[in-house]
Amino acid sequence: xxxxxxxxxxxxxxxxxxxxxxxxxxxxxxxxxxxxxxxxxxxxxxxxxxxxxxxxxxxxxxxxxxxxxxxxxxxxxxxxxxxxxxxxxxxxxxxxxxxxxxxxxxxxxxxxxxxxxxxxxxxxxxxxxxxxxxxxxxxxxxxxxxxxxxxxxxxxxxxxxxxxxxxxxxxxxxxxxxxxxxxxxxxxxxxxxxxxxxxxxxxxxxxxxxxxxxxxxxxxxxxxxxxxxxxxxxxxxxxxxxxxxxxxxxxxxxxxxxxxxxxxxxxxxxxxxxxxxxxxxxxxxxxxxxxxxxxxxxxxxxxxxxxxxxxxxxxxxx
Length: 318
What we know:
CATH architecture: Orthogonal Bundle
Strand content: under 5%
Number of domains: 1
Number of strands: 2
Low-confidence stretches: 312-318
Shape: globular
Distance between the termini: 26 Å
Helix content: over 70%
Mean pLDDT: 84
Number of helices: 13
Strand order of the largest sheet: 1-2
Oligomer: single chain
């Protein structure tokens, strides 16, 4: 009974953490005299891209892998989508380009890992370098070499909270259904928890790795489109922090980096918003971005240590 109670508390800890951060933001914001509604709108705008990308990335993390090229993939997808809009003036084509490029990059990562029988993180490290180079090349093709601008009036009608929340909600619901109510989610958890045993039962790690990357690619494409909507001027720094933010968000949300049965879709959402509320609180206290990054890194290490320690205690002695 005590073990179950402790497990429930551990599972709900990220939710309690988010509630505490929201309360702290409201209290500090009221003391500082800021516009709370504007502050909450800013939190949503900053969180939605990380949340949608991290939600898809959960499928990769569940397998015990991780992709560090997600931020660069968002940038390349957004830039190519923006270039397509500049040439065609068609929002649907821009959206399709963002999704298509992101899925293509994700498939390339998974296929290369399968063909060369390499760990996924190895191929994503190589892909990160390629994508960063592509960002510089594509912006250079634009002529100015500094930015690619989508007309702000073209996306102004989409730059609102209801639209962004609707996109995030629909994607999360789709991922929750796939992850919790289909064989895809169950088999990926099995592969992440015990890959050897899973393969001996006939589950193909290559097949489900490709599926995981496709789902993640869709999230990256949605994140790229939302990035254009929020900031239609695209530069070499577009989505530059998204890759690391996704990793931190997933851990903040209570998901183990080892993947397996303890993986949770909602970890991405809770972690993304927790991280943004924490950043906003530090901003209210006039702490610079460098200190903020140090605080995030310290919390990241602490959360991973606690999760790993809790997991080790459950292992049978050898």
